[in-house]
Amino acid sequence: MSDRLRNSSPNINPCVTEFQDLPLEVLSEIASYLTFTDVLSFHKTSTKLFQATNSRIVWLNLARDYSARYPHLPRPESGRLDSLETHQIREWAQKRLIIDEIWKKTSACPRRQVLSCFGHLKPCTVTIVPGGRWILVGYALGYICYYDLNSAEPTPMVLVSPEHDEQQGVKGAQQHVELLGVCVDPESPTLEFKIAFGGQDKTSLNIIQRLHIWHVRLTVDHHGFLTASKLVSIPYSPGSRALLHFTGDLVVCVNTGFYSYAEVRWWKDCSETTSLRARFRVRKGPVCVRGIGSDRLLCVYDKGDGIHIYDIPAPEKVNFQQIISRVLSSPVRLSAWSYPVEVGYMGFSELYFDGSRYQQVISTVQGVLGLVIPVSKEELPTVVKLSDLWHTPAIHGLGFLKGYVPYGEDGIRFGYSWDSDITYQRGWENTTWAYKEYKMDFDEGTGRFGYIEDNNIGLIDFSSCT
């Protein structure tokens, strides 16, 4: 910069201007070491720094850092990070990084919506597909609809219906009654995924309950339409109340009545008439069940019964008559590991797997705990305290690093860490507690919380704050 320009511009800091005189490539390299908030500050400094912070290396590093902190969250729909265009990387990372910043602010203004129901049917279950774009709602009479949350006004689109079931060869599906639940394989990609749901099919003599597994994919044009096709429909008999969990290998259904028992199916080896299954008694009254790999079952109990891990017995091949019978393939199982703690209602996350261990976040009256389960049975599970903050037993949305309670104007947002003592909470002081029971789901990446209350489908969307 010339002396004449320096003298004529006394308000310009020479250090700043000399820094901006560096080549754009050098500025981009420097910016690639900045945090997200620093990058946003650079954005506003000058046109040249705006260009430097919009470079590929800056946003690729930010996206990689985010993925390292949230290894359980799905990557962009279009593919691997390094295979995307710069604008795609920036759009994906910026939206999620802003959610992280919003979560720590004193106040926030999420968009609140009531989604329209499908016809006059009663909504029974709500599930946000990992990635946050789709919300699946199960209705009475066997309908499952999806909503595209990226659209301005999400409307119900039929994904599975009784008529669709008939076309796919599911006998008696037109008499399908209330759904037990809709689960998404957590390892599925965002362009296509698998779902499992339970229900009942009436026959002329009795009621046969079924597990249905379908494959869902985004249409080729990627214009926001999903299609579904049946993979398998499996008869089973879990009783009137059951918890469901689905993985790429297993479907776990645990009856929650007076005599609780687990029914585990290796669904890829099942058909309409035969099943590969293990069926055994567990402690009664679990509030959360998760299949661990293909050989263990995690059950979380309330009222001080704590956390229990059971070894799943060897599977056996059974025919149709054995499937619908209530004969157990093994007696009551003693948990291989347990941890006594009083958990809260809905106070648990999904089960995350990083290749060497499983991790689960559980909210208790002692604070937020992290359960670590090694792959090898030779190593015992461990429990770490993620946060000393006491939360209401009615906590609803819990993720890997942050959670949400939908009370008050903005709700209560809180966060924690697995490798440090950093914790925070926002919105606590402005909230008056009023216990509510929700059927809900929470996506921490996009900050979206879906729930059913008084037969209405609600959406609280923090991504709209961006």
From TrEMBL:
SUPFAM superfamilies hit by this protein: F-box domain, WD40 repeat-like
Membrane-spanning residues: none
Domain F-box: 16-62
Entry superkingdom: Eukaryota
Name the record gives this protein: F-box domain-containing protein
